[in-house]
Specification:
There is one protein chain. The strands form three sheets. Strands 4-3-5-6-7-8-9-10 form an eight-stranded mixed β-sheet, sandwiched between helices. Strand 6 and strand 7 form a beta hairpin. Helix 5 packs parallel to helix 6. It is globular. 33% of the residues lie in helices and 31% in strands. The protein is an alpha+beta fold.
């Protein structure tokens, strides 16, 4: 971990800088760059990634960036940052204060470091592979809940996640088995909540690597499990099933097959 300490410090600093920028702009008029059927792109997304990219490449000029808003540096770089500058753009646009800055570090193809910052709650979730997961420096751990009837679960459904009617049926079936369903609108925040024991599982049929890479490290260091099934050759798009490692979630989902 010691050799990654400078990278973690850089990720935290960049995440806080980006978070401060997003927080200061939260009540300002948002400029929309692109409107999709179930999503939206803001100019702030690109501006925030540019800020993060400048900081990270200034600290580590030989590294590369894989970001939701574009890539920088050499694709052959041994160290690659995976960045989602604003995870929860739709929330941000509508004035819902649930969003995050997500920064992960991939070394020789393996994601080893994650940093997720929620600027509105001022919560910094961090982990380095093999170490503890923390929130504002305090060690966190997944919940001890093992019964679906006790659980709070996020389950993506409908056209927005590509699952269509099958996703809606899955949502209905799982919702009948758990205590509560929660949809926060940010994959990174949701996964960190699972890591902190605030929620118990997260299921999504369509997700991108930058949405969950940092939170995956945090969740696994907190004792949780995340299974990613790629849907493209690059391994950037796919589906995620994640949980506290105790719920019988995988068996329940296997019943769909």
């Amino acid at each position: 971990m010691s050799e990654l300490a400078p990278y973690l410090a850089a990720a935290e600093h960049a995440a806080r800088s980006a978070g401060a920028f997003l927080r200061s702009s939260f009540h300002s008029r948002k400029v929309v760059d692109e409107e999709l059927a179930h999503d939206i792109k803001l100019r702030l997304d690109k501006e925030t990634q540019a800020l993060i990219t400048a900081e990270l490449l200034a600290a580590f000029p030989d590294s590369a960036i894989l970001g939701e808003e574009g890539n920088s540096g050499s694709a052959a770089a041994a160290y690659r940052w995976i960045v989602d500058p604003l995870d929860g753009t739709v929330n941000y646009f509508f004035g819902i204060p649930i969003f995050a800055v997500s920064i992960a570090l991939q070394v020789q193809g393996r994601v080893v470091l994650g940093c997720v910052y929620d600027p509105m709650q001022d919560e910094m979730f961090c982990a380095v592979e093999g170490g503890p997961a923390t929130c504002n420096g305090r060690t966190i751990h997944v919940s001890a809940r093992s019964r679906m009837a006790e659980a709070a679960v996020f389950c993506g459904h409908g056209a927005h996640d590509g699952s269509g009617e099958a996703g809606i049926r899955r949502f209905a079936r799982i919702s009948s088995q758990v205590r509560k369903m929660r949809i926060l609108g940010s994959a990174a925040v949701t996964l960190c909540y699972v890591a902190a024991g605030r929620m118990d599982a997260y299921i999504e049929s369509r997700i991108s690597l930058w949405d969950f890479a940092a939170a995956k490290v945090i969740l696994e260091c907190a004792g949780g499990v995340l299974d990613f099934t790629p849907a493209d050759a690059a391994g950037v798009k796919g589906s995620v099933v994640s949980w506290n490692g105790l719920l019988p979630l995988r068996g329940i989902l296997d019943e769909e097959a």
